Amino acid sequence: MKSYTYDAIVIGTGAAGYSAACRITELGKRSVAIVTEGIHSGTSRNTGSDKQTYYKLGLGGSLPDSVRKMAETLFEGGAVDGDNALCEAALSSRCFYRLCELGVPFPHNRYGEYVGYKTDHDPYARATSAGPLTSKYMTEALEKSAKKLDIPIHDGLLAIEILKAGDSVCGLLCFDLESLELISFRCADIVLATGGPCGIYSDTVYPESHHGSTGLAVSAGAALRNMTEWQYGLASVSPRWNVSGTYMQVLPRFVSRDSDGNEYEFLAEHFADIYSALSMVFLKGYQWPFDVRKIMDGSSVIDLLVYRETVQKGRRVFLDFTKNPFGLDKIDFSRLSHEAYKYLSGANACFGTPIERLGHMNQPAIDHYKEKGVDLRSEYLEISLCAQHNNGGIAVDSHWETAIEGLFAVGECAGTHGVSRPGGSALNAGQVGALREAQRISAKKRPLASETIFERVAKEAERRNELILTRSQKRPSNAKELLEMVRKNMSASAAAIRDTEKIDKLYAEAKVLLDDFASSVGISSRADAVDLYLLRDTLTVQLLTLAAMSDYAKKNGASRGSALYTDIRGVTPEGFDGNFAFTLPKDKKHLSLIQEVLMKNGAPSVSWRSVRPIPDEDLCFEEVWRIYREDQKNME
Predict the structure, then answer these.
(1) Strand, helix or coil for residue 284
(2) To the nearest whole number, what is the mean pLDDT of the chain?
(3) Which of 6, 45, 3 is nearest to 25 (CA)?
């Protein structure tokens, strides 16, 4: 088996992964390499929105802001550890300015102020943007930095197992997608920058090149945190893209099509007044993430109506920008809500059809779909309620290290967010996490495992995986079909809308599949091994996620954040349209608790704990300076 040796391995070539590798090199002078399934894959490089947001400390204008205030904003999202929130606030400016120096085109005025705007769950104007492709620009700039630092990149490798000596990391096992052979890496530290575990769902806005590898951490013994907390929203099916912002504000038609080809403007079935419907569609642009608090008198009712058409009725839903909704030749914009009318009139967009308004307000939004093969001027755009971001993830400490010594998680795969978060805070968290893990790796300088220990562990992992690959080729090929099935079932019953009875059923099915994996899953040839490993990772993460959802429903049951738990216990519901029943939390006690789940003896074990509070540090300069000097001396 071919083998390489480095001090540290970073898995992933997104904005967090490149940043992690660069920081380790710059701070620790340690040998580091990047392992990736595909350099041009992943969410950072392949996603965006009409205005992709980056969240950081306020750096312009007269609105007062502080590190502590930003930490409190992040902490108040609920189920968030205060030390992570404080780090993300304190280091946001440092990480943001580094991106600016690397060439990411964040706008500033002629005096150098990075003026911001308000985003979701943001009491201050901390948000900024480099346009629809902010994270792509970040990734490209950080990639250039990694190349200047001569950081090796091993492309075309699927990471399949974290190798351990005792309770510590000693290496990594990978599957070479070209040679179809196993390759090992001897290292002291591993940084997972593999993004959110979107592979557990079929309805997702994540790019097709991204599926996540959170199962790596689970199989190594790490815990997951807040896996009940996701962000879902309306997105186009092909290409996968958020239909937020101006896509909604120009008031397109929502069309449902049944199996016979009949079309319905289904919003009219729920709203008594079509102008109320149009006002909610407009608001959906601002309030893109599905939020259970915005169902009864807010824009999230739109998400629920789309889900009812697609999942419950089995229809397909489209946006039509070519004609005005509800057969209107002309819209009387003055009959919209005050907010909608003020915005559209201020933009001089109270005219024409949705596509004409979109061209006037945001021509790049049309150009994007045209480049992807969809002409909004003549074609319908199919949409669905999709998974967009995992607010939970792998449990980490204040240096983004897991309970496994030497195993770190940065970016979306790290569970530093909770029930809600400010829009764009994930991009900041990835950069801060990369800096914090590099500081820990630089300070500890963990030694490599001896060659004898590493070879023993690596050979055992090689033997075990070769046995799996050999046996799977002797059975009928079913890995791809199983993968599609479990993802589809998860989206139908355990995504934004969660049926607790079906969740328990899906859990039992996933448990059987995973327990019998070695004897029931087959592939046609070794070239299809990717499907085998993706299925195993997907089932592993699904199992823990379903266990977390079931446990939450039994202990709490109230709908929160971006998840609606259908009420089947006879509790007086808030109610919706006769199709859904749900309750909301009666107080904020649930926000002070974090749920964690890990594998124990082959089954998920769920526990709850109080959040770690925001640290109350002594900010006397002389005292901080003294401790800083001592820490620097210890690192030498």
Answers:
(1) helix
(2) 93
(3) 6
Q: What pLDDT shows up at residue 34?
A: 98
pLDDT at 17 over 90: yes
pLDDT digits (tens, 9 = 90+) for 135-148: 999 999 999 999 99
Half-sphere exposure of 74 (CA within 13 A, CB side): 32
pLDDT at 585: 87
Question: Is the four-CA dihedral 354, 360, 362, 363 of positive or negative sign?
Answer: positive
Nearest to 193 by CA among 407, 30, 405: 407
DSSP per residue, 441-478: HHHH-PPPPPHHHHHHHHHHHHHHHHHHHHHHTTS---
The rounded distance, in Å, linking the Cα atoms of 433 and 411 is 7
- Encode pLDDT of 117-138 as tens digits: 888 888 888 999 998 899 999 9
C-beta neighbour count of 527 within 10 angstroms: 10
Report whether 376 contacts 360 (CB < 8 A). no
Residue type for 608, please? W
The pair phi, psi for residue 627, each rounded to 5°, is -65, -40
Q: Which residues contact 477 (CB under 8 A, 6 or more apart)?
A: 522, 523, 524, 528
pTM: 0.94
The DSSP annotation for 226-278 comes to: -TT-EEEEEEETTTTEE--THHHHT--EEEEE-TT--EE-GGGGT-SSHHHHH
CA distance 201 to 484: 9
Residue 274 C-alpha from the chain's centroid: 34
| Residues 499-533: tens digit of each pLDDT | 889 999 999 999 999 999 988 999 999 999 999 99
Neighbour-count burial for 37-48, b at 16+ CB within 10 Å, e otherwise = beeebbbbbbbb
Structure tokens at 22: 């660069």
Specify the pLDDT at position 257: 96
CA distance 389 to 233: 9
Percentage with pLDDT > 70 across the chain: 98
How far is residue 594's CA from residue 608's CA, in Å, rounded to a whole number?
A: 6
Smallest Cα–Cα separation from 132: which of 13, 227, 226, 46? 46
